[in-house]
Amino acid sequence: MSNYEKIEPICICNLFDGTSKYEIPLYQRAYAWEDDQIRDLIEDIDDVDENQDGLRYCLGSLIVSEKDSIYEVIDGQQRLTTLYLLLNILQMPVSKTLSFANRDKSSKALLEIDLILNDFKKLCDDSCYQNEILNGIKLINKYLPCEKRESFIKKLSHVYVYRIPVPKHTDLNHYFEIMNTRGEQLEQTDVLKARLMGYLSNDEKRCAVFAKIWDACSDMTGYVQMHFTPKERNRLFGGGWDDRPNPSYKKGGYKSFVEDGEYVHEKTIKDIVKDDFRIEKNDGSLEDDKNVRFESVIEFKHFLLHVLKVYVATYMYDDPDNLVARLIDDKKLIENFENVEQKGYLERRKISTNKSDFAFSFVICLLRCRFLFDKYIIKREFVDEDKIGAWSLRELKVSGQQSKKKPYYVNTWIQKKHDRDKDRSRRCLMLQAALRVSYTSPKIMHWITDLLIWLIQDDYTNIDSCLNEYETYIESLIQSAVKSDFLEKSDEEKFNMGLKTPHIVFNYLDYQIWKNNRRKFDKFVFEFRNSVEHWYPQNPSKGTFPKWKHEDGVDQFGNLCLVPSNINSSFSNLDPEAKKKTFKEEVAKGSLKLREMAKLTEDAENASLKWKNEACAKHGAKMMKILEHACGCC
After folding, report:
1. What residue ranges of the chain have pLDDT lower than 70?
2. Cα-Cα-Cα-Cα dihedral of 142, 147, 148, 149, to 10°?
3. Is residue 77 within 8 Å of residue 25, measured between CB atoms?
4. What is d(CA 539, CA 531) in angstroms, rounded to the nearest whole number?
5. Which of 220, 363, 501, 578 could form a disulfide bond with 574, CB atoms 3.0-4.6 angstroms apart?
6. CA 539 – CA 574 distance, rounded (Å)
């Protein structure tokens, strides 16, 4: 049996059922989890939907070395010890199968856990037990009160950890030193990589290609081309390093791109967790020779789920939502891949009987998507010593010849030949920025999936024939959300929405104002203004001016705007005149709707009351008309 086949998903309810014994070696640090880690663990489990049949939620990995029928815990002991305490507190069946080597106080606490729980107040300061374990018990009780425990226990049957044995003859001290230096445990991405490479274990060349592409794509900084060697870039992306990767995975072309001796694949967990593949530290320069670096808007673990959805739509010609969960939930990464493997078909063959082709075709799809992601989806760009950054939509180019080639970056050219609309690239950037700041959680950034599918479908057909429609497609995604979540609601629903008005509505409105007044608002940028506020407040400061009740219209769209959360508390209770004067600088560079509201608040006596009684309704009607016209709802 290969090492990959020994990777086991184990329900946490069965971790300590007596069939396996675990020992935490002396070179591991003592139990040390505190408030944040324990709270996060409990919240992760509490997020599980216990009513969803067949759900398997991965909580993380447990790296072990099997010796004399005992699993020596190499990585994951903090989580394992916490789970042991948790299961005991919940009074679930738990055998005393966890111990610490040569740590008497720690082992005694685990061995006498029943005694401690029965008389915790009396024993919590007992010097014969490790204090950190006693504190862990206290924190679990704090974050898991008795009234929540019944439903929490139901969730546990859906929660798993992956037990991963290191290969025999692994230098455990060296391995632990690597893990300890990195200061991190294996993520689901590492487990997934090992799993997929296991399907290719009979083909060393494919394994090498898979690992090279995966490593390059997993580094989400910069552009994927720069994570290969120069020779590999030439083979994969052409002499200009900007050709689209070939979609075929059967013709064998990808087997030839890895340089001889450049990558040697060894099937050990130690190799899999290494993250030292770096070719160049600098991303390159702009056309004016300024140094530049780029930052992705999502992490690799989320990118993998976007690509899996693209894979289902592209290679399997199926609706991604049939096989992959709607939410981009990285905690369910492996579960989603398992579902595709079990239920999906690739070229009329069940993937479950053809896992090697699935693994290899997926990594090619990963490379293609990463290339498109870098070129056509926004990044955060940092020039020279800039630490704030700006939205960026650029493509990689090269200057020089042969070994003297150097990368530089220019604005991505969205236009096709003979298209004279030179502003389209800027509008595409602004539309994507509006999406990015509206949907801040990576779980709901579905627009990235939609754009990748549009870009890659039918072997890049849209790019080849109608790239100039990319802007229209991006905007259609926004319009669909604005209509369904706001414009198509009844007047009463819109009137009552208030602070719950979707952020995309405000940001799309700002986009329309910007687009129609480019010269005036050319320096406007979308920022994370993530708090909906009233211009005329709900609760005036100390009763200094009349209150505007909900039923009289304080929550109407005209009286709402987006502001950064850091000015929320001090901004909220002032009247419009005071807001305009106190937050003059913030208003001047704020959202365009906010600027319009401030402009309408005249510098005259009773300006705030005039806003309440007259100007607000007129402003709201004007803003609604802009939205309705843009979405074709007039």
Report:
1. 1-6, 26-27, 53-54, 120-127, 168-186, 247-284, 287-288, 417, 541-543, 568-570, 604
2. 90
3. no
4. 17
5. 578
6. 9
Sheet holding 159-165, edge to edge: 8-11, 159-165, 57-67, 70-75, 21-24, 98-100
Question: Is the CB of residue 16 less than 8 Å from the CB of residue 98?
Answer: yes
Distance CA 172, CA 192 (A): 22
595 Cβ contact list (under 8 Å, min separation 6) = 587, 588
Pairing relationship of beta strands 70-75 and 98-100 according to DSSP bridges: unpaired
Q: What is the pLDDT of residues 40-58, one digit of tens each?
A: 899 889 888 777 766 778 8
Q: Alpha carbon of 291 to those of 192, 281, 376, 383: distances in Å?
A: 35, 12, 21, 6
- Per-residue model confidence as pLDDT tens digits over 377-431: 999 999 988 888 999 999 999 988 877 888 999 999 998 767 778 899 999 999 9
- Identify whether the C-beta of residue 188 lies closer than 8 Å to the C-beta of residue 334: yes
Contact 438, 501 (CB under 8 A): no
- For residue 379 the two structure tokens come to 């990044």
Rounded to the nearest 10 degrees, how much is the dihedral formed by the CA atoms of 596, 601, 602, 604?
-170
**Cα of 44 vs its chain's centroid, Å:** 15
pTM above 0.90, yes or no: no
β-strand partners of 563: 531
Q: In terms of Cα–Cα distance, which of 136, 137, 95 is closest to 119?
A: 137
Structural tokens at position 230: 């120069």
The first and second tokens of residue 447, run together, are: 């627009």
